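Lab channel / #folding
Pinned by the channel admin:
"Please post every new chain as: sequence first, then the structure tokens as a reply. Keep commentary short and put observations after the output so the thread stays searchable."

First post following the new format, from NK:
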Amino acid sequence: MLKKKAMLIDLTLCVGCNACQVACKETNHMPEKEEKALSPTTYTALDEYDGVFVRRMCQHCDDPTCASVCPVGAFTKMPEGPVVYDVEKCIGCRYCMQACPFQVPRYEWSSTYPRIQKCIMCHERLSKGLPTACSEACPTGATKFGDRDELLTEAYARITGEPGKYVQKIYGEKEVGGTSILYISSVPFENLGFRTTLQTTPLPQLTWNALSKIPGVVSVGGAMLFGIWWITNRREDVKEYEQKHNTNHPTNGKS
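Reply from TO:
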């Protein structure tokens, strides 16, 4: 059975060296300039709160909302853990940006052919048995890559081993059903810009639970949409037929 991969980020060990961003940019062929916030050219960025450095990146949810709202299946949750993006399928609707509980996806507004950009957790490296570029580059061990279950065990061991050092929580363990990016910290997460009011139930599950209670509405709505589609296409067929018919049988001048 394939074990789900994850990253454990220990904020007490991060020194703000930015090696993670440099390695990420190099791996993903992005501009080398340092950026302080997520952008179309930055998959991971560092925030600072009174000397505490916090990495921002895609959380790679176990049940990703971006994938559930995408009407064309441009997002896919891989068995190893990453949530990847297929630019060839994307239609630019940006539903993923609105739906993401962590406000991660970025849009290339200035591009002629805009795409969504976000961390893809080095899925190609993972397929070759390699760790993520950012975890490999981290000089202090602040970012550790491995099996999710094993990282959770290690995180709990650190917390219980030094209860005066860490807050008693692993961020990402249960938020919106759990994520592949896990954090431990010496400072309460709400003081570091984390969204701490998120539910533990995956957001797509809440949607399906609601829809399951109104099957009639969904069925009628689906039938209406199909009807509109059929009528629109039928009109085009009729128009095309009439044009061909008039071409092949021109009028003889009689009214």
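NK: The first strand starts at residue 5 and ends at 10.
TO: also worth noting, The two ends are 78 Å apart (CA to CA).
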